[in-house]
């Protein structure tokens, strides 16, 4: 299916039962001063691309979040930093009930340039898509809002009195979010202690984990508490959000001042320790708009979130420019739109471990 006219484009929309469906839509236009029109060259897949349509159906909405592409045109406040042809990566809120035209699984998209990262020439388009924006955006929100960690790559946290680094647990270190967390936490002065399977353990260490504990061990939480953090763990990022992961994190966290971030909603009866402060970051919120999801995934519009995202975009741009940040290991799926549909099925079936699925458009 090729585009029918110059002002139309091919894209993947949510079908009636949530599955991807090819469609032709109007090409979006720059309307706000900070917006840019991007010609999308590659996309990366995230679990939310199949989870959101199931939990908050929005048939007809363009799907997809992470993208890499080239600036086609820019609003008046964006054109100096993002002239035509600039290679950029970022994320949008796809499958969006509040803005069904917003997804990245499309030939073109319009997005706020203040959350875009310029991609170096030495990176391929697939690398840029794998970096996208969901990963670093999630870590930004988790560190700043959920875990209240003040260290940043540009200003790392001071060591503790004994000279050691403050430990942070990353449960699910081999997830795409987990390897981003290990890198950013380590560069921010913290000591990431991760969990992973034995197959993924070396990958997680390669991305900056100081120690990796097998999550399959029945004493995972005790091992982290007693052998790796001396009972003083205050921060846990849970990239899995299962009964087992919550139990491990809650066991590992120390008695005083503990904060826990789950990346998916966890019910109250899993929270066995009332003293632990729980907050689920929602990365879509970084655009500052209201998130029209139901229940715990709803967020009010909040311009402070966009400010937070802008600050962290600057951090990430600095790391990328200095060659200090890597995307998760890339695995290309062939087949453009059908490749996206196939890739989402592979993810849903739990077949993808330690890899970021990317598709060239
Ligand atoms: N709230 C938000 O805004 C937000 C943002 C981003 C992601 N998320 C959520 O965060 C989660 C992770 O997303 P992702 O894209 O980073 O993941 P991913 O890359 O798709 O994760 C794959 C990895 O998950 C691990 N895994 C799978 N099942 C596991 C289990 N039962 N126990 C422990 N580890 C298991 C495996 O690690 P091993 O290889 O070690 O087995 C595998 O390598 C998803 O649920 C996603 O929806 C939420």
UniProtKB/TrEMBL annotation:
Domain Enoyl reductase (ER): 20-359
Cross-referenced SUPFAM superfamilies: GroES-like, NAD(P)-binding Rossmann-fold domains
CDD domains registered for this protein in UniProt: enoyl_reductase_like
Family of the protein in this entry: Belongs to the zinc-containing alcohol dehydrogenase family.
GO MF terms held by the record: nucleotide binding; oxidoreductase activity, acting on NAD(P)H
A Pfam family that the UniProt record links to this protein: ADH_N
UniProt keyword Metal-binding present: no
Record keywords, A-Z: NADP, Nucleotide-binding, Oxidoreductase
Name listed for the protein in its UniProt record: Alcohol dehydrogenase GroES-like domain-containing protein
Organism: Byssochlamys spectabilis
InterPro entries in the cross-refs: ADH-like_N, ER, GroES-like_sf, NAD(P)-bd_dom_sf, Trans-enoyl_RdTase-like
UniProt key word Oxidoreductase: yes
Region of interest (Disordered), ranges: 1-26
